[in-house]
Amino acid sequence: MFRELEQKKKIIHTSILILILVQNSGTKGVQYASNISQLLKTITNLHVSLAKPIMKTAVIALCKLVELLKGIEHTYHRNYMSISESINHVVQYLTFRILTIVGATKKSLIQDKHYSEKHLDILSSLVLVEKVLNGPGTKERRLIARLALSAANQIRIFREDELSALNSLLYKLDMMRNLLTLFMFSALHDCLLAIDRSKHSLSTDVLKECFKNEIFIYFEKQVLKPLCQEVETNLRLHVHSHLQLDDRNPFRGAIYDCSPFLTLKPLRFFNNYINIKAYVEHYLNQTFYNLTTVALHDWKTYGEMRSLARFKYGIVTVEDHLPSQTLEQGLDVLEIMRNINIFVSKYLYNLNNQIFVEQSSNNKHLNTINIRHVANSIRTHGIGIMNTTVNFTYQFLRKEFLIFSQFMFDEHIKSRLMKDFRFFRENKVQLDQKYSYERADKFNKGIRKLGLAADGKSYLDQFRMLISHIGNAMGYVRMIRSGGLHCCSNAIRFIPDLEDIVEFKELCTQDNLSNVSTEAGAQLDHVIDNLVRNFTEGTEYFKLLVDVFAPSFRDSVNMHLRNFYIIVPPLTINFVEHSITCKEKLSKKNKVGAAFTDDGFAMGIAYILNLLDQCEMFDSLHWFQSVQEKCIQDKMHVKKQKSLTSKDDEKLQQAMTLTARRLDLHQQFIK
Question: Which residues contact 581 (CB under 8 A, 6 or more apart)?
């Protein structure tokens, strides 16, 4: 019975307080305190600025103002529990009064017979006011409400008394929202008075320290750490927005704005201050430094996150000054990854030896990249560099495939491919199911009539180079994968049997070793497990890069790619002619452009045929059998011509010999 009376008494007290707050503006105390504080600061600063002494009567008046100011502060602190419980009700009441005025004005505007487009803009502004006030009264929402009301009142739709009431209510709403933050840590500080009076502890200082630590740990767990993680996640998603991420549409899912927390002034926490912004800055500094140390190849990503943090949240972080690449001799693997578009155009891939060779130049020594070079870099930076390489390759391929699609969409190319497709389909029997070499050669030569680039290359030359670049990128991924296996094999060679691995944690537990030794054994088990998994299972990066592009390539939207396999024969002829020219330059004085290998083209063709699921279609052309038959026929023809030619005609004999050698080269490249 006594408890029920106490609850009813508390409810009545709260209701009376709400009524007082609402009827007496609720913010008069804060207004008085603000006016008194401003007056005190103005008078004292004026006397200091003008170097004038303060009269005795003025000093007495200032002291009375200070007493009033502290009295108001004491009144609020004494009733902070009741005020904190009542503020939300007051805010709801003030919001209700604003919405009532806005709703009545909107209703009269809709019923107006002289309705126009201008009224539609005003009505939209009023609807916006209703929407922003039907939610949490954040600073941004209140600002939008003020702007919308100003836009709506362009033609004086509010009466003078309504406009005055709206301004007054919005001012009170601002004061109520700001008032709530004053009591947050003040309430906790007042608990120290009760701790000082405790008798069950020998030292109240120890009890105070435990209380402070407990409150701070809880505040850190519930507010500070989640805030740091949210800021880091937002920065990371923003930097990686070019990838295929989850939907970040604020109209479909909740996206939290961390800016209000970071703009708060330092909070007084007992005898200390908590600076939320400085806490987040320290967290980001530590995170960026540690992660960059583990994976140097991600330095650029964290550099972008630093810049974005300054621009988006005003967070200033410290530069880590770590090296951005490995300091060994030779071309840096990290630099290749960041500039893969330049690398694939300057280096040529050799499929058998798994090396990249720089294109020949007269000015410098040729650089090479091999598996051992890659394995050393992976050993330095960790296995994570393999996944990062695939990410960079994926971004590069996206751009290259856009150009690839544009070429295949060209009307001249589409019409020629359709024409050749119909010819092959209608003459299969006569051609013995083999695609005509003459038809492919005609395509290769005829496309030059469409125009040449400034360097003399045709459109088919440029398309062949594009495919070679795509193949070089895939070759680099293959080399990275092989280097990773090489690195893992070197690290795992000390494990006697991969099928029977001993658990060191269990052995430490059985022998009753210390906790430190048991934890060290668990860490060793984790490292061995990672090495075994990476060595035995690995990741099929080729399959990943096929699976990510294949659905869009095979989609009905990209029907213009369905005849790609028809253009492969002209491309192979173009590639063979280019390769022979590059190989012949090796014996010349000017070796610019000379090359003895370029397997990127074959890798690119195989990859794209796999993406489009056209391997069987290309096999149905029996293209390589057609080329072999063409080479044999040409060699027989040359041999016959050579036998009919007089042996005394040396020039003609030499020409026949050179022709035979060139045919052998063609046949060798086709094989």
Answer: none
Q: What pLDDT, on the 0 to 100 scale, is given for residue 465? A: 92
Measured between alpha carbons, how far is 408 from 327 in angstroms, rounded to an integer? 43
Task: Say if CB 326 and CB 332 are below 8 A apart.
Answer: yes
Say whether 458 sits in a helix, a strand or coil.
strand
Task: Please classify residue 279 by burial: count the beta carbons closer than 10 Å to its beta carbon, then call 0-12 exposed, 13-18 middle and 19+ buried.
Answer: middle
What span, in angstroms and rounded, lies between the C-alpha atoms of 313 and 257?
10
Q: Is 410 left (phi over 0), alpha (psi -120 to 50) or beta?
A: beta
The terminus-to-terminus CA distance of the chain in angstroms comes to 101
Give the residue among 180, 185, 179 at the shortest CA–CA distance from 273: 185
Residue 618 CA to residue 377 CA, distance in Å, equals 39
Helix (H, G, I), strand (E, B) or coil at 115: coil
One-letter amino acid for residue 136 of the chain: P
List, as one string, the DSSP characters of 230-253: HHHHHHHHHHTTTS------TTTS
Going from the C-alpha of 299 to that of each of 184, 334, 438, the distances in angstroms are 40, 10, 53
Return the pLDDT at 12. 47
Length of the chain, please? Answer: 671
Instruction: Spell out the residues 6+ positions from residue 504 whose beta carbon is closer than 8 angstroms to its own.
Output: 521, 522, 524, 525
**Type of residue numbered 31:** Q
Burial letters for 656-666: b for 16+ Cβ neighbours within 10 Å, e otherwise? Answer: beebeeebeeb
Which amino acid appears at position 29 of this protein?
Answer: G
Left if phi > 0, otherwise alpha if psi is -120 to 50, otherwise beta: which for 295?
beta
How many C-beta neighbours within 10 Å does residue 598 have? 21
The rounded distance, in Å, linking the Cα atoms of 511 and 597 is 60
Per-residue model confidence (pLDDT) at position 1: 46
**DSSP reduced 3-state for 607:** helix
CA gap 142, 251 in Å, rounded? 20
Q: What count of Cα atoms within 13 Å lies in the side-chain half-sphere of residue 648?
A: 0
3-state secondary structure at position 461: helix
Tokens of 31: 């207004």
3-state secondary structure 117-165: HHHHHHHHHHHHHHHHHCCCCCHHHHHHHHHHHHHHHHHCCCCHHHHHH
pLDDT band, very low/low/confident/very high, at 23 (cuts 50, 70, 90): very low
CB of 346 within 8 A of CB of 401?
A: no
Q: Compute the CA torsion angle 516, 517, 522, 523 (nearest 10 deg).
A: 70
Q: Tell me: the pLDDT tens digits for 140-162?
A: 788 888 888 888 888 788 888 88
Write the DSSP string, 608-665.
HHHHHT-HHHHHTTTHHHHHHHHHHHHHHHHHHHHHHS-TT-HHHHHHHHHHHHHHHH
Instruction: Enter the DSSP assignment of 452.
Output: B
- Candidates 393, 404, 377; CA nearest to 343 is 393
**Other C-beta atoms within 10 Å of 168: how many?**
14
Whole-number Cα distances in Å, 19 to 26, 81, 181, 185: 9, 16, 21, 26
The per-residue pLDDT for range 575-611, each reduced to its tens digit, is 988 888 888 787 777 777 777 788 899 999 999 999 9
pLDDT given for residue 454 in this prediction = 82
Token pair recorded at residue 362 = 């007269």
> Which three-class secondary structure state does DSSP give residue 348?
strand
**Secondary structure in 3-state letters for 301-325:** HHHHHHHHHHHHHCCCCCCCCCCCC
Q: Report the alpha-carbon distance of residue 370 to residue 374 in Å, rounded.
A: 7
CA gap 383, 484 in Å, rounded: 7
DSSP labels, 479-515 = HHHHHHHHHHHHHHTT-S-TTS---HHHHHHHTT--H
CB atoms within 10 A of CB 579: 18
